[in-house]
Amino acid sequence: MSEKWIYKIDDLKMDNEALLVNETIFHNANGYIGVRSNFEEGYPEGYDTIRGSYINGFYDITEMKQAEKLFGMAEEKETMLNVADGQTICVYLDGKKFSMFDGEVLSSSRWLDMQNGYTARKVLWKAPNGKEVDIEIRRMASFSHLQVFVIDYQVTPVNFSGEVIIESEHQGNVRNYCNPNDPRVAGESFQHLIPDHGVVENGASYLITNTVSSGLQVCTGVKNTISAGETETGEIVLEGHHAVQKFIIQAKQGEAVRFVKYMVFADSIRYQDAQTSAKDEMEAVSSVPLEQLYKEQREYLDKFWESSALEIDGDDALCAAVRYNAYQLIQSVGKDPYCDIAAKGLSGEGYEGHYFWDTEMYMQPFFTLTNPEVSKNLVEYRYSTLDKARENARILGHKKGAAYPWRTIRGRECSGYFPSGSAQYHISGDIAYSTVAYYLATGDLDFMAEKGAEIIFETARMWVDLGCWHKGTFQIHEVTGPDEYTCLVSNNYYTNLNAQYNLHWAVRLYKLLKEAGKLEPVAERIGLQESEIEEFEKAEKAMYLPYDEKLGINPQDDSFLNKAVWDFENTPKEDYPLLLHYHPMHIYRYQVCKQADTVLAHFIFEDAQDMETIRKSFAYYDKITTHDSSLSTCIYSIVASKLGLADKAYEYFGDSAKLDLFNTHQNTKDGIHTANMGGNYMAIVYGFGGFRLKESGAWFAPALPKQWDAYRFKLIYLGRHIQVVVNKEGTTFTLESGEPVQIHVYGEECLLENSLHFPLK
Amino acid sequence: MSEKWIYKIDDLKMDNEALLVNETIFHNANGYIGVRSNFEEGYPEGYDTIRGSYINGFYDITEMKQAEKLFGMAEEKETMLNVADGQTICVYLDGKKFSMFDGEVLSSSRWLDMQNGYTARKVLWKAPNGKEVDIEIRRMASFSHLQVFVIDYQVTPVNFSGEVIIESEHQGNVRNYCNPNDPRVAGESFQHLIPDHGVVENGASYLITNTVSSGLQVCTGVKNTISAGETETGEIVLEGHHAVQKFIIQAKQGEAVRFVKYMVFADSIRYQDAQTSAKDEMEAVSSVPLEQLYKEQREYLDKFWESSALEIDGDDALCAAVRYNAYQLIQSVGKDPYCDIAAKGLSGEGYEGHYFWDTEMYMQPFFTLTNPEVSKNLVEYRYSTLDKARENARILGHKKGAAYPWRTIRGRECSGYFPSGSAQYHISGDIAYSTVAYYLATGDLDFMAEKGAEIIFETARMWVDLGCWHKGTFQIHEVTGPDEYTCLVSNNYYTNLNAQYNLHWAVRLYKLLKEAGKLEPVAERIGLQESEIEEFEKAEKAMYLPYDEKLGINPQDDSFLNKAVWDFENTPKEDYPLLLHYHPMHIYRYQVCKQADTVLAHFIFEDAQDMETIRKSFAYYDKITTHDSSLSTCIYSIVASKLGLADKAYEYFGDSAKLDLFNTHQNTKDGIHTANMGGNYMAIVYGFGGFRLKESGAWFAPALPKQWDAYRFKLIYLGRHIQVVVNKEGTTFTLESGEPVQIHVYGEECLLENSLHFPLK
């Protein structure tokens, strides 16, 4: 084991909370499938466990009843499904089942190997009858075979030779997890999957299951293989939607019994014939040695780390946490245009597998800078749901344009509470923003012509329909900014800037595409008129941006500063997060922010204000922000970095890095906080590294946290691979591949040919 | 029949819509029970009908699932129940059932007799076999015996003598009506009542039924009596929760068979033993001649009309409509402290039998001026739910005081959508306002000391907790005013004035009670401090009231005038009411009012602005108000009267008078618009009569609509019965009883001793 790639826990805790959190922390995913790390052998009665296997973008349509019917309210939503369980493997010694809760666990550990791409559990177990076995289990969601999940299960008798029985199950009768008391996960468990049929073929079981309402099908296949001396292999017994196979092994002391369980997933969104696809993939993967899969996994990750390596010298634990975050991002991100990145990745059922603005503003930047092809795919996904966004705009009352849904899987609005759902119009601007970011990072104008520009034109159309003219300014009323503790406001500063940027780029792309002779197809496709471009430009130029003369800050919205400041002094610790303890209307009535809002604008659209305003704004909002959202501290860290507030920047950075590994929000059991992980990356590259991607180019302004000796990151800018090393001597930029390129360092433009060195400022 | 008391329809239409509307229009109620006027004999397959009998304040608790869980959202609501059906009476001639949809209806009519207090249907029917019968049915909900509903059914053979069979049913298996497509009625039909047991005793059937969740019980009793020559009276056959009794009569040509069906209701809210109460009442009522009940009904109504007569000369149809409205008010208003006035009275299931602010601001004024005891009872009802209002305030985040729920039966918040529900804080001020109005009309300081002041102190406490200080003014953020087309705003003009009035009266009553030596009990009960009174006064004096210098009007709220005006020109007629065709957020984004809001303030709190501001405001809001609510045109009529805009006042008055009788909102089938009926009364007395009830006394400024020859109304002011007659010669005030009293006429104070005459101004 190479320590720097390993996140490891020894002496596993068997309490409920730790078990649930570790199910999330050690889940295996590859962007297509995700399997929580449940114990193969199960849990005793009375233990909670969320036993789940998910497919990104595979959903059922479920009822979302509104307490009061109102026009245009979503009454159905898409929900990611727990599709089947193939995790169960039970080992019996003389009829006694191996269990972490029985006999004696002599030693135990779990780890994630981020270089080789698997998780593992190792247990030395003494059965009640005194027999000891060494069990080591590796689990992998393959990056080279996206449909494949493998459990590599080795049992070694330590102090005996004799019979070992292994039973492996394949269960198609599964449901989603529910928790009626937490607003952040689904409150009810319906049956979303109806067994269609099961077959046993070529030593594998296949269960074919249909969704209740979305008309989709999924086939899961399980194949058990064993390498041991004397083994009696039982038939696969298929009963109903459940298959089981039993192996009776005459095991020898000190010799490992290696049991490999392949599980294959195929859904009808991607595969015309899910059953055939599952069978083909099962044949393909089980006919090569498992070592081959391991090798491919390593190769995939070597490439991934090569382009996205981010290292910190001087704080190994933090370095591992940062690497863990990057690893979760590549585990979570969809690899085809049928899906995106869910708020919890594929690690749990929190937020029902929905995609939010988090993708564009917190996770996509990582991919845009390190894996532009993945970033492009994320834009493709949004493009594939553009028609739904147009429909959504009509529902919201707009005569033209597209308004992306606040939370969705296939493109319909799945938010049941519009004041902090559909009202967050900024998501459309966020999607436009990250589409532009992809273009700025790659210069890929062809893709803009083909797909990107259409998103930007259609969202721009929505903005001009949404806004209104008042006293010569263009204003936007009745929207909610990123901060969900203040809803349905006029002229949210972030939203107005976000709309302005969207409009600006609609105008800009129109010109760029026209100059390049690439405008016609898209303009024709959506009937875009020159007069609309003029309208965009007019609104852009006249966009109203609230500014308070007296405080010298940007108010979050028109009414924000008139409200009373929340009584933080008399709010007990246990009342956080506020949303779980106060009526939303009560929260809305005060100056209190759940998360970065104006401060996010000061990062994303920093050129809209001078440094002094940003400084004052930051100080103002810093006092009234609870960071009850996981999307907040990373942004505060970045802006603190920009302002040279090194200690504050580092403190906020630390908060965001630790979130899941330390379960600081107490809901990691429902899944990882993918956005926070992307934000954590940004806090280093944009925060400490001072990186910005602008129309004017790539900008750097690195600083070195005093806690570190050095840090390194890489990025791909206009096809050039650039390495940035920041240490106590200064910053070194190295052009690893590609033609020389202009970059800006500490505000000055310079040509990066081979390498450049700058002392720290 | 005395025509001026009759509302009559001849040649009944048998289409679905007309049938449903007439079920409402001709319903019988007495404030305790309400029975829709369904045809006793039923309807053929395929016809809609809402067959319902209701008890005011009798409810079950039903689930109100929130699409997204948020802290403090109501997840259960109270729903008025359809309790049992005792309407069914079927008449058979040679096995052929009398039906309006079979044989031949030679003539038909229905009417409501508002002097005698019953509804009637008269049909001359020719059976398919040629036999003709004359059927006349009278139905009455007794005002003297609130638990009793009677059907007085007379059948007269016209061209034959022979067998007539009458079958009468008592059905306990009933459900509430549902319409999944209309947000204004319940969307689902659950079983809310579980049969407990049934008994037959002393010639009557009794069905005892329990609610599913609220722990309540209701007993309904039915007793059939017949007066005819030769009759074979069948046994009451009780099967399950259904009883039926059959009568075989040898009827003679030209001789009426008179069948009387008594139905008695008793619920466990009012009666400790519902069954015993029902039996006792049945014995009492069926042991006296029916004529006695008719006589008592007439006496009750004579007294009612004596104190509340409102007559118009020169427009008989309008006069009948106005009288119809007053009649519905006395039918709807609760007569005990367990209930209030539902938005639809007891005529249907619209709004689930909930009580809103409509009571205080639209209906109670009628009772305050004409039947102060009824008005007092309405205050008692609110007082009885004050503890619930305190609980509600805590849920909403207030450390002290009481916040009344937006819609309720027993006091819990039953609104599922808080932006146009709980956010309408003004309901607390409205309750305080009408409590004060009761005091101003009666001078009943003892009742204030006992109950009224506690309401006013507790709501005042809520206001100071709700509001905040900003730049030396007291402001109120994140509330919704009466206009539901603009929600969650800062400084709604109406709400701020309403809070100010509430605070003012808390201070005033504190002093009045202190002076009268009546303060101590209430102050002690609620721990009221002198310092709080100072705080009330401070907030009252500093209340911020938005005013726009440029337009010279009061903006509805801080952001209202910054929004674009709704595009009325391009809104097709079929898009009204807007709430059924546009997303609420879209509506909120525009200057468009569902109903009087600032204009309501200009009526209720007229002294807050000069006439010029009110004139400009009225003109401004008049252009942007859709009157999609039934609470609107009456207010516009009143303010138009105040401004001397006679034509406009009359036009708006006409709109409000016609609402239910002409079904102008197309939802009369779900019940009458009780608030509109009260509003219609106000449009005459407060509008044309220019009446105001203020701390400074009673003010009149009568005008005579040019369409009328004269109008007359009565009111009770400080115990004096005053008649006001306005005709072309002027206005005559007559003191019908009581000591001389000071009144203000056209702004001048004068002493009303016997009578006073003023020419019109």
N- to C-terminal separation of chain A?
Answer: 39 Å
The parts of chain A where pLDDT drops under 50 for at least 5 residues are none
Q: List how many beta strands of chain A DSSP finds.
A: 31
Question: How many helices of chain A does DSSP assign?
Answer: 18
Shape of chain A: globular
Quaternary organisation = homodimer
Indicate the proportion of strand residues of chain A.
25-35%
- The average pLDDT score of chain A comes to 95
Structural class of chain A: alpha+beta
The major sheet of chain A is characterized as: 9 strands, antiparallel
Helix content, binned percent of chain A: 25-40%
Largest interface: A-B, 53 and 53 residues
Strand order of the largest sheet of chain A: 1-8-9-10-11-18-15-14-13
Radius of gyration of chain A: 27 Å
